Amino acid sequence: MSVLTALLEKYVAEGVFPGAVALVDRGGEVEIAAVGTMEAGGTAPMEADALFRLSSVTKPVTAAAVLALVDDGVLALDDPIARWLPELASPVVVRTPASPVDDVVPAARPVTVEDVLTSRSGWGFGADFTAPAVQPLFADVAVYGGGPRSTATPDEWAASLAGIPMLRAPGSAFLYNTSSDLQGVLVARAAGRPLPEFMAERIFEPLGMTDTGFHVPDGARHRLTPYYTVSPDGALTLADGPDGNWSTPPAFPSGAGGLVSTAADWLAFGRMLLAGGGSVLSPRSVRLMTTDHLSAAQREEGSLFLQGQGWGYGGSVDITSAEPWNSPGRYGWVGGTGTAAHVVPATGTVTVLFTTRGLAGPVPPEWMRDFWTQAANA
Q1: CA spacing 20 to 30 A to 134: which of 2, 162, 239, 346?
Q2: In a shared domain, residues 293 and 226
Q3: What is the C-alpha separation between 113 and 312, in angstroms, rounded?
């Protein structure tokens, strides 16, 4: 039994999650572990090709889609997004982060493509989830209430966002999540076709990511794992099953958290980044994607999510070696459905951990940190 398998089976035995798939690629030498069962209380073993809801591990893929359009010359980083999203041409910002939603001033400048890529568009979640300007993002069914399976169309989503004031001025602060959904809508508008179609053509097909998409077709649904949330007493509660929300194409393909995929497919995406973009992205776009773009003050303000690290385009970038798994330049992200995927340019490593246990908050749990430590030190 490999050390990686033993580590994950320990957590299965302790009831942390029913099953998981982990993968570590060290310069082409791949170790993969599929442990436990597909579902809680079930007997069907977890398989290496199991499908998982990526949640926020979707974000790096969406950023790559934006950058593909930058490489094509369709978008430029300093372009105002209002060129493609005229609904957002005249945004307003609350006077202070604690101000009520009707105490607003006009944004000092337009939101640019790079603002959206760096999660500094002005919309999103900061450390204070009770801030008045944050509440509409939670309350509006189109913008967040439906989560990654919103019933709104992309046009309806954009119209709803236009009616919500920014929490911070464009470019001034890292705010989580909303910018990634905004990226997805921007790609669809600029490309002139739906986000799933563009991603399939420009990312999934060239990389052979045959199991990645915004829903699971009938023939593959037996490979889709359930997703569980965890109650305060530690009990697992089924949040979505194989015939649930991901069994049909969504009205709103969420660039922030809508994809399903396999460990092998995300490995292909990670290898593309390590190779400098291959046929998908230019080397310049990969460098920009995997470089921290935040100031020290912005990193500090976003520390609830960033945990001391920086942010590139669509994912975090390690800038310190404070933890055993940190490697300056490590790029990737974590998903609320219990997923994580990173590339480590310094060592040519790709790490993927997909589980069926949802996370309780933005701080990575012990079992995820243990996986990262094992992957970094093996």
Answers
A1: 239
A2: yes
A3: 13
What are the contacts of 292-296 at 24+ separation with CB within 8 A?
292/317, 292/319, 293/114, 293/118, 294/118, 294/174
Look up the CATH number of the domain holding residue 84: 3.40.710.10
Of 277, 310, 319, 263, nearest to 119 by C-alpha is: 310
Question: Does 109 share its domain with 207?
Answer: no
Residues 183 and 242 in one domain: no
**Among 254, 259, 265, 91, residue whose Cα is nearest residue 187:** 254
Query: Distance between CA 93 and CA 108 in Å, rounded?
Result: 9
Beta pairing, strands 349-355 & 339-344: antiparallel
Neighbour count for residue 374 (Cβ, 10 Å): 19
- The residues, any chain, with a CB within 8 Å of residue 275's CB and separated by 6 or more, are none
CA distance 46 to 343: 24
pLDDT tens track for 237-275: 999 999 999 999 999 999 999 999 999 999 999 999 999
- Number of folded domains in the chain? 2
pLDDT tens track for 95-154: 999 999 999 999 999 999 999 999 999 999 999 989 999 998 887 756 665 567 888 899
DSSP-derived 3-state class of residue 339: strand
Q: Say if residues 271 and 25 touch (Cβ distance below 8 Å).
A: yes
Q: Which of 162, 191, 220 is the last residue of a domain?
A: 191
Give the helix/strand (H/E) hosting 31: strand 29-36
Using the 8-state DSSP alphabet, how is residue 218 labeled? G
Could you tell me the residue range of the domain that residue 168 belongs to? 64-191
Domain shared by 43 and 73, yes or no: no
Q: Where does a domain end: 158, 191, 224? A: 191
